[in-house]
Write a structure and sequence with these properties.
CATH architecture of the largest domain: Roll
CATH topology of the largest domain: 2,3-Dihydroxybiphenyl 1,2-Dioxygenase, domain 1
CATH superfamily of the largest domain: 2,3-Dihydroxybiphenyl 1,2-Dioxygenase, domain 1
Protein name: VOC domain-containing protein
Domain VOC: 5-128
Keywords: Metal-binding
Largest sheet: 4 strands, mixed
Structural class: alpha/beta
Organism: Nostoc minutum NIES-26
Helix content: 10-25%
InterPro entries: Fosfomycin_Res_Enzymes, Glyas_Bleomycin-R_OHBP_Dase, Glyas_Fos-R_dOase_dom, VOC_core, YwkD-like_dom
Strand order of the largest sheet: 1-4-3-2
Order of helices and strands: EHEEEEHEEE
């Protein structure tokens, strides 16, 4: 298999309006397309992340809860690259998003930290 990149990351949320506001207004991702799928009673929101990446935000009636431990098998977290981590943390905190302390990656020497989305999905910001 030869790939050219990651096309999108799909996220299922428990409260569509709350998550849409978080990803669009707090994180600043732009809306590509919003679709309500009547047969599934479900929204699908395509979001632009950076220049070439997308998140598909889904709502479903009564989705099962996420496993609480980030060290469980499966997707561990989603990381976003930023140019200025201190400014990004300040912006997130100003909007009421709690972040962990900024740490240094012992392998790359780059700064990073974590925060959570409205459904406690662990998200990372990593300085380029």
């Amino acid at each position: 298999m030869k790939t050219t990149g990651i096309h999108h990351v799909a996220i299922i949320c428990s409260d569509y309006k709350r998550s849409k506001k978080f990803y669009v207004e707090v994180l600043g991702f732009s809306i590509i397309q919003e679709t309500f799928r009547v047969e599934r009673n479900s929204y699908k929101l395509d979001l632009r992340v950076g220049e070439n990446n997308q998140i598909e935000l889904f709502s479903f009636p009564n989705p099962p809860q996420r496993v609480g431990n980030p060290e469980a098998c499966g997707l561990r977290h989603l990381a976003f690259e930023v140019r200025d981590i201190e400014q990004t943390v300040s912006d997130l905190n100003f909007q009421g998003v709690e972040t962990e302390n900024i740490r240094i990656d012992e392998i790359t020497g780059k700064k990073f930290t974590f925060f959570k989305d409205p459904d406690n999905l662990p998200l990372e910001i990593y300085e380029s």
